């Protein structure tokens, strides 16, 4: 049997059709642009996203040259927080406010003052922040009452696409947990938080486990998109959760390191293993996963984006050489990065800090420069700095009760053998590169396959679909040097904090 996966991002959507053997049968991608009607305001038009989804489904089906009877089901991975507002006829009420939109900040402050930060965190597993859906809904209630009065329900983008295809309006546990109104212990909406936010309880959709079967494609949608009328729709989840599933991370003690624009380590654990207070202290979310397990997101806002910044600012010669030779510019820049550790320390907070500080005012720092510093050393130091930050996050995870021995790497950064070796040396763990372009969309395909019996289990799905490349092991020769630099790194944030007077 064959399966369809969709990945809905904030800037584009991708469709992948895959055989149960792992063969890619068709794929397509379309971009769309966010809108910024005013400073600090960032929106996404749900209709444009739906048009992009129809385009990629149509393109992929045009490439698909097997009998349509082989197509069993479809599931969706999507980014979180942003909500599509729907009236009682299922019509979209306007653009969706993205997680980077500043609106909702004042409403959140009032909510925290009313019921307390600890109360919110203990139930939702989230450190209060205006990025979450609850804050945006409160903003609509106060600032756009005409829209709020017509609001019947809201859905994250993944559920919205499934709804347009014919599913009932359902949200999965992992995306529900990004609203800041979902009790991640009871796996249900928290009545006290909703009441304190002065929101209508009826607008919160039904919540179900990832991988639930939630309907069959509408005949009209099947005909318009060239899809089979029997196609089953399966509830997907948050893109980071789907990426962990797609990387084959199912057992406690394992984690995926997604090295994209943002870098995120996503481990798997049972709730009884962890100390909720230690998680909260490090601003780490508690997120429902598959098979009754949980995960969290340990992340830094700069991953591959830091290397892109270096390329754009200092890599003109390498870019020209790459254009002439057809090679990757990052491969060429890495050839001059040297074999051993540098003595530079890079605080990679070029876009603020992620966990454990969650400080939007944090700034990047490059320390230890002298007249002998080369461009290649600086390039390597950027990789080291991001990796020190992720080692700090691993320490926080261990302090919360997680013991992570196996790390699988995916995303664009996983193509760099240089970076993965640096990671193995600094984190003192084997790092295995996966041959996966998009782990999130593969996770959506696995969710559909397990739900429909194409795979008997997630472990079997991973065995069939997840392809492993090289494993990088820590090199003892570099361990002492990196440990010494990491000890210095741990003092760097506070030193910069004292100078820059961060809030």
Helical content (DSSP H or I, runs of 4+): 40-55%
Q: How many beta-strand runs?
A: 24
> Within the CATH hierarchy, at the fold level, what is the topology of the largest domain?
Nucleotidyltransferase, domain 5
Shape descriptor: globular
Based on secondary structure, the structural category is alpha+beta
Q: Return Rg in Å.
A: 23 Å
CATH architecture of the largest domain: 2-Layer Sandwich
The N- to C-terminal Cα distance equals 55 Å
Q: What's the topology here?
A:
Elements: E1 2-8, E2 12-19, E3 24-31, E4 43-44, H1 46-63, E5 71-78, E6 84-86, E7 96-97, H2 105-115, H3 117-124, H4 133-143, H5 145-150, E8 153-155, H6 157-165, E9 170-172, H7 173-176, E10 182-183, E11 188-189, H8 191-196, E12 206-208, E13 213-216, H9 219-225, E14 232-238, H10 239-246, E15 254-259, E16 263-269, H11 276-281, E17 287-288, E18 294-295, E19 298-300, H12 304-314, H13 316-325, H14 329-334, E20 345-347, E21 365-367, H15 375-399, E22 406-410, H16 417-427, E23 431-434, H17 439-451, H18 458-465, E24 468-472, H19 476-500
